[in-house]
């Protein structure tokens, strides 16, 4: 393996890691600012100009706060829970195509850490692992409220991963590939999958809210019933790890939806822009376009949180099993019929 290739990949991993951390950190500020706007108040405005240093202040506060481990807890698992939740939230970004290849010093540098031919399955596997961090943390706390939150998280994840997977099957029937990069390249210009799979996207969006434990599906936390849910006994940096993992998962979910349904880095007139700007600036513009799409989805996550009330637990289960799964199956059948008709024409 060439040294230059290793350096390229290491640099790309470092850049994506820093971008993910920055977006997750400032998503906390954006959420509080959006909440303030929707509730007709200012929001954080003391730490730095306009509150720009608030995420740094929150991070330092979490880092220096006293770490309390309950005496009756399973100490090793108590530490493993938030560590696993934070670790798995980083893994999904490895297969996201962040832009077209860039030409640097005569070398084609890919803006994707790895292009595996089962990228979609890889993301599903990583997302499935994330719930183990919540389950382990809730179990290890030896607290009935934490355990109830962990059980809710597990059952919610099982319920909504089924329609999530079924919604993707219809998309894969159209694209004939599991590679995230190939799916992105097929959406050149404005040939986006959202125009062919609007129902599939709606199901995927709803399930993404449930998978990231965001309102109105934040039953594992549910302060009104479970004090704080699975992280009731956590404090300091471990509590911060759980919170950070949630915002990283929201960032990943937004990136996946942008890639699968909204053309990833593609936009109208991209070829003309690339000709005008060159082999470096053009792909970077495409990467900026992808980030704008991701920010739009993150804003949607936050807007919904401060607009829609939390579901009851029975409503959560009914929506997943009795509505979304039948809709996803119907979408697969309709997609198959349409593809068959088009092939015979």
Write a concise synopsis of the structure shown.
69% of the residues lie in helices and 2% in strands. The chain is mainly alpha-helical and 345 residues long. The longest helix has 36 residues, at 3-38.
Polypeptide structure, described:
The protein is mostly helical and 345 residues long. It has one domain. The chain is 69% helix and 2% strand. The chain is built from 11 helices and 2 strands; from the N terminus they run αααββαααααααα. β1 and β2 (107-109) form a beta hairpin. The radius of gyration is 21 Å and the shape is globular. The mean pLDDT is 88.
Query: Mean pLDDT, rounded to whole units?
Result: 88
**Major sheet, described briefly?**
2 strands, antiparallel
Order of neighbouring strands in the sheet with most strands: 1-2
Overall spatial form: globular
Q: Rg to the nearest angstrom?
A: 21 Å
Number of domains: 1
Order of helices and strands: HHHEEHHHHHHHH
Count of extended strands:
2
- How helix-rich are the residues, as a percent range? 55-70%
Approximate strand percentage: under 5%
What is the count of helical runs? 11
Instruction: Give the low-pLDDT segments.
Output: none
Tell me the distance between the termini: 48 Å
Oligomer classification: single chain
């Amino acid at each position: 393996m060439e040294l230059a290739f290793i350096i390229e990949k290491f640099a790309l991993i470092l850049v994506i890691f820093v971008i993910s951390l920055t977006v997750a950190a400032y998503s906390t500020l954006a959420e509080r600012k959006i909440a303030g706007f929707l509730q007709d108040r200012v929001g954080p405005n003391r730490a730095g100009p306009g509150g720009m240093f608030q995420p740094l202040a929150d991070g330092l506060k979490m880092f220096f706060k006293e770490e309390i481990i309950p005496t009756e807890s399973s100490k090793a698992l108590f530490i493993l829970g938030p560590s696993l939740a934070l670790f798995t939230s980083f893994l999904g970004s490895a297969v996201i195509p962040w832009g077209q290849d860039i030409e640097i010093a005569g070398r084609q540098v890919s803006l994707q850490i790895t292009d595996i031919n089962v990228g979609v399955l890889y993301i599903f596997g990583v997302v499935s692992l994330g719930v183990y961090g919540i389950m382990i943390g809730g179990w290890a706390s030896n607290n009935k409220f934490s355990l109830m939150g962990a059980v809710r998280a597990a059952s919610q994840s099982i319920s909504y991963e089924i329609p999530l997977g079924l919604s993707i099957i219809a998309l894969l029937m159209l694209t004939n590939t599991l590679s995230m990069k190939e799916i992105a390249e097929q959406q050149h210009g404005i040939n986006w999958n959202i125009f062919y799979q609007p129902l599939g996207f709606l199901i995927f969006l709803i399930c993404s809210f449930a998978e990231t434990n965001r309102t109105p599906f934040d039953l594992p936390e549910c302060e009104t019933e479970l004090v704080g849910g699975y992280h009731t006994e956590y404090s300091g940096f471990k509590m911060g790890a759980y919170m950070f993992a949630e915002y990283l998962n929201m960032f990943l979910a937004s990136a996946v939806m942008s890639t699968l349904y909204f053309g990833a880095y593609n936009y109208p007139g991209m070829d003309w822009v690339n000709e005008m700007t060159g082999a470096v600036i053009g792909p970077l513009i495409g990467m900026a376009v992808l980030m704008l799409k991701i920010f739009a989805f993150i804003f949607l996550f936050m807007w919904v949180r401060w607009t829609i009330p939390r579901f009851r637990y029975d409503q959560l289960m009914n929506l997943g099993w009795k509505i979304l799964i039948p809709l996803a199956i119907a979408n697969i059948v309709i997609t198959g019929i349409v593809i068959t008709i088009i092939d015979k024409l």
